[in-house]
Design brief:
Keywords: Membrane, Transmembrane, Transmembrane helix
Number of strands: 2
Largest sheet: 2 strands, antiparallel
Number of domains: 1
Structural class: mainly alpha
Number of helices: 4
Distance between the termini: 5 Å
Order of helices and strands: EHHHHE
Strand content: 5-15%
Strand order of the largest sheet: 1-2
Shape: elongated
């Protein structure tokens, strides 16, 4: 039986998204966007090579909740933070699928 394995600590995309989020917060002086740093971590923890919602339920829920809150409050920083969570989940899942290697079980 062949099992595909990936190491979550090797992923570079969450670091890139977090750096982009910090750059946005500094550039636009939207310091509330830094709320997205824990959301980036949630997106990173929920990534899976097959992008199933069993692993991605928490990032999807966090993204939806932050989008609803940001739209209600009218804050661009919260909307960008929510987008960072969703982007991290999708991009880290794609990167983990790319970095998977087969292991004989």
């Amino acid at each position: 039986m062949i099992v595909y394995v990936f190491n979550r600590r090797e992923l570079k995309s969450p670091l890139v998204v977090a750096a982009g989020l910090v750059a946005f917060a500094v550039w636009r002086s939207e310091w509330v966007a830094l709320v997205g740093l824990p959301l980036v971590y949630v997106g990173w923890c929920g990534c899976a090579p097959n992008m199933n919602l069993a692993n991605g339920c928490l990032p999807a829920l966090a993204t939806g909740t932050a989008l609803a809150f940001g739209a209600t409050v009218g804050s661009a920083g919260v909307l960008v933070a929510a987008g960072a969570c969703g982007v991290t989940w999708v991009v880290a899942s794609a990167e983990s699928a790319w970095r998977c290697w087969p292991v004989e079980w």
